[in-house]
Design brief:
It is built from 2 helices and 6 strands; from the N terminus they run αββββββα. Helix content is 45%, strand content 12%. The strands form 3 sheets. The protein has a two-stranded antiparallel sheet with strand order 1-6. A two-stranded antiparallel ribbon has the order 2-5. Strands 3-4 form a two-stranded antiparallel ribbon.
Amino acid sequence: MKYLVFIPLVFVASCASPPRPVVRLVPTPAVEPVEAVRYGEVIRTYHVGRYADPNNPEMMQEEHQVYRVEVSGRWNLHPGSPATPLLNPPPDVAFAPPATNDAVVAELNRQRETTALVMQQAVRLAKSYGELQNIFAEMKNVARDNAVLGARLASTEQRVAGVEKELQKITAPPAPSTNDVTGILPESTKP
């Protein structure tokens, strides 16, 4: 009976309280694409053939599929493109024009002139280098020809020396024979 007394008091108390606002939960739209907010998990399937259980050698398992979570789901922390453009974007220093004044302009002009002069001298140097390479090639040919001519001259001088020796042998008076006595008179001609 005690409990029945409390029930009307609760109804009376609830009627006497100010009305509460009604709150309804409105479902939010789904996020599309999901990868923009969270990466899903990666699950791989492996086929396992028949095998004896290593913990209980009296048990054998039949072939079946094993599913393994390779990579668990995680939040995508890469910043996406902003929904609203920046009102005051930072300047891109790679494309910002350099600060100019008369001294900087004069120095840039001097550098351009110097660069043009260096380029002209490089072209002249390349031409001179090509000419020098041609001269070296010609000098190599001349040196090779001189070596060939020197070798031919040496062989010609040896042949001339051989011919001179042969000529001397032919033109030389015959040597006296050993039986000839010169300066000895025969006895019948003695006085």
